[in-house]
Amino acid sequence: MIRNRQSIVTLCALAASFGCASENNSDVQTAPPQIGDFVPVASSDPAGTGDMGMNAGAPAAPADVGAVLAPTGQDINEGIIVENEQDEAQKAAEDGATCGENSEPTKLQDIVLAFAFDRSGSMALDETERGLKWDPVVAATKAFFADQTSEGLLATLTFFPDAGGGGFGFGGGGGACNVNDYATPDVDLTALPSEEFGTAIDGVEPDGMGTPTMPVLEGTIEAIRAMQTDDAVSAKFVIVLVTDGLPTSCSEEENDINNVAAVAAEVAGEIPTYVIGVDSPTASPGAAADADGLANLDLIAQQGGTDKAFIVSTGNAEQTATDFRSVIETIRESAFSCNVAIPKPDSGQEFDSEKVNVNYSNTKGVTEFVYDPSCTEQFAWHYDDEANPSVIEMCANVCEQIKADIENEGQLNVEFGCIRRIGGTR
Q1: CATH class name, domain 110-335
Q2: pLDDT value at position 380?
Q3: Which of 13, 16, 194, 399 is most buried by its number of CB atoms within 10 A?
């Protein structure tokens, strides 16, 4: 069980309350504005465009308190909206809810990077290639898992081919092609940073005669499915496949790149697959440096919902480490989730999907979001499934601003108990 997990944006903690938003915004604004006021943010943009680096092309923020809120083009930092207190009190009375009662914390979903790490013999054909390929990739991988900047992420690690697989059965598969051997990670779900991954990596060597890509993908998906059933884990899972070669040495069906890509495609909408292709300084047969190999790795990534494979250069150990760190950071940013798992109400209460609101507060003020499944509103959210919701999802434009708003101590607030704000009705 993972407890006290930190979100990828450490300052973007979430609070949920079964009631309306608090009437006292003193924690956010030292001198609360008057009812109906709009308080603009002092822009850091010398040109006066109002763009704070999160909404390029937005119009300038109004210069004076009391200016009318622009319906479109507004930045998430542009101000605080204070609704009529009597209206809020009336809504609370109609709802039968008392604002601020029965608080229960929630937060953005964690991100779990499920690594499948290639330890096939081609990762180190000889000492020269080992020093330019295996060693720097291993060093960069270990550094990522132990780096303090990885805080807020969780990960698992599975090596392939399986060290205890008992060898390959060419043409028909063998022990290393057994899906079940990859359904239990070599390093279980662990919060980063952690030295546990480095210890596990130090315990393996390049070995084996092939690359059982399809079995490891299937096994990793099985492992993720098992973790998704754990009530203590609310996370977005992604697969990170690190490999230098094409699928080989299992059955003809398992070695078919189209079948491998189909495995990734089947879960792409829920569990994307990122591919890190490890280049070969000596262009060994089947290595990622081969043009066909690159195309095939791209196919797995494309079908896995991540566009194309990332290729890490080798031949210079320092550059390899730099490339690997850059790729991981890109994956981290791409996998960022603005989803919020809906917490269970307190005992005696029932969840009402039509009585949920979302707002965002930071050192500049509070912005109220509206419910809009079409995401055409400026600040909008929606459910993953309107009929049977389990997750609150921020619309893409809002999510991008939340990701960028680290310096303003942003906090996303999910409120339960009052009739939700609907797009176009405010």
Answers
A1: alpha beta
A2: 94
A3: 16
